[in-house]
Each structure stands twice: as structure tokens, then as C-alpha cells.
Amino acid sequence: MALRTLLTGHGLVESPRWQRDRLYFSDWSAGEVIAVDLAGRSETIARVKSLPLCTAFLPDGRLLIVSSSDGLLLRREPDGSLVTHAELGRRRAGTTSSWTAAATRTSTASIST
What CA–CA distance (Å, rounded) separates 71 from 34? Predict the structure, then answer.
């Protein structure tokens, strides 16, 4: 299999996730979550005012995003709006890993919202 570039022009790219035939990732420098398909078509899925530290998907396919400085776990609704899924508290030293774990636990659990 040959390596090929699907997308360029993004800053600090983190948190890659594969979902429904698209790669989702966070561009920390732009505060965006972006999806790209294998043809290279991209879409900005969400914009957050702070670093989108971590992303995960709920069993129903909705996207979760950790908004770092807000201390929030955001959920992207089918209409594209972002709503608070959980309050994680204000950022403190050493909390990033617990936020990532919260997003991962939430995405793999059965949750009624």
C-alpha cells in the first residue's frame, strides 16, 4: 500500500479517530475538529474556542470533544450544534489525562442523554 497525502495546511494535528469512512482529527492551532475522507474531501466539523484536546464517539455516532480551558465535554448534535455533555471542571495541572479518560469512558459506555 502506498502512502499518500489527503490533506495539508493544518497546524498541530492530534487525536485521530476513524468513524464511518472518514478520519476525524483535532487541529489544536485552529481550535477545530476536521473530518477527511479517502478522496481528500474535508469538512470542519466543529470549532471550539479552546484546544479540542480529545475526541471520541458515542455508540449512536455523536462526536464528543474535550474543550480544555472551558473544562467541558461537548457533544455534537445531528444538526451540528455543540452542547455540554458533562462538566469536567476548570483546567488544573495534570488534568488533561483525566479529561481524555472521561471522553473515552463516556464514548464506550451506554448513556442516556
Answer: 21
Nine-digit cell string for 52 = 479540542
DSSP H or E segment with residue 104? helix 96-108
Q: Which helix (H) or strand (E) holds 66?
A: strand 63-67
Give, for all 113 residues of the chain, the pLDDT tens digit.
Answer: 888 888 888 888 888 999 999 999 999 888 899 999 999 999 999 998 877 778 999 999 999 999 887 889 999 999 999 999 999 876 554 444 444 445 544 443 322 22
Question: Distance between CA 109 and CA 59 in Å, rounded?
Answer: 8
C-alpha cell, 72? 467541558
Q: How far apart are CA 66 and CA 73, in angstroms?
A: 5
pTM: 0.73
Question: What string of DSSP letters covers 49-104?
Answer: SS-EEEEEE-TTS-EEEEETTTTEEEEE-TTS-EEEEEE--S--TT-HHHHHHHHH
The one-letter code for the residue type at 76 is R
